[in-house]
Design the sequence.
């Protein structure tokens, strides 16, 4: 077989492989799209709580030693991409016709900034504060307080809670990405019902 024929055969094989991959992924893509549409439809009816991890931050884990809540310069903050991501998240919810009546936030600057850039408002709610550095003494009490607030919410509209990975994981058992939103609702026996997840928008 000539070199030309070998190259042509190799190219055709690669193209065939790509086409097969696309065809195999199509049912999954359609299912995901349908699930997203169903979730947006549910959110339009109101009465749900949206647990959102703050938008993308500067590199790092937790906060620098001796950080202070009253001084954003001592904390790990949103990156420029994260600020843009937060704005896009707020716009996306508005375009989908989702009503956010109240926005509660951790007192950390990256959460307050996320809430304000996305929704134009933020009410500090200490139970949403990060307990990353103090999980033994704070996690249970804060998780119980947030859960109680979720259980008591009936609407109108939806309630947005902007917080941290550790807090959302404690409430749901799942790990959120920066800017990801978990939709939850009060469930039986004071348990939270996870309705769905809105994937993060690329910064």
Sequence:
């Amino acid at each position: 077989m000539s070199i030309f024929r070998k190259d042509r055969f190799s190219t055709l094989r690669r193209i065939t492989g790509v086409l097969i991959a696309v065809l195999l992924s199509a049912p999954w893509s359609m299912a995901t799209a349908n699930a997203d549409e169903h979730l947006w439809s549910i959110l339009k009816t109101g009465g749900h709580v949206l647990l959102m991890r703050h938008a993308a931050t500067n590199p790092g884990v937790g906060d620098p030693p001796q950080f202070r809540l009253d001084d954003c310069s001592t904390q790990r903050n949103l990156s420029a991409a994260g600020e843009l991501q937060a704005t896009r998240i707020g716009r996306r919810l508005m375009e989908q016709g989702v009503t956010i009546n109240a926005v509660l936030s951790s007192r950390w600057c990256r959460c307050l900034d996320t809430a304000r850039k996305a929704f134009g408002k933020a009410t500090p709610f200490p139970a949403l504060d990060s307990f990353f550095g103090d999980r033994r003494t704070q996690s249970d009490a804060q998780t119980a307080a947030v859960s109680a607030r979720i259980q008591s919410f009936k609407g109108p509209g939806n309630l947005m809670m902007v917080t941290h990975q550790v807090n959302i994981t404690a409430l749901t058992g799942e790990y959120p990405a920066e800017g990801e939103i978990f939709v939850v609702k009060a469930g039986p026996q004071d348990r939270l019902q996870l309705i769905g997840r809105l994937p993060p928008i690329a910064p």
Summary: The helical segments are 3-45, 80-95, 109-119, 135-152, 165-172.
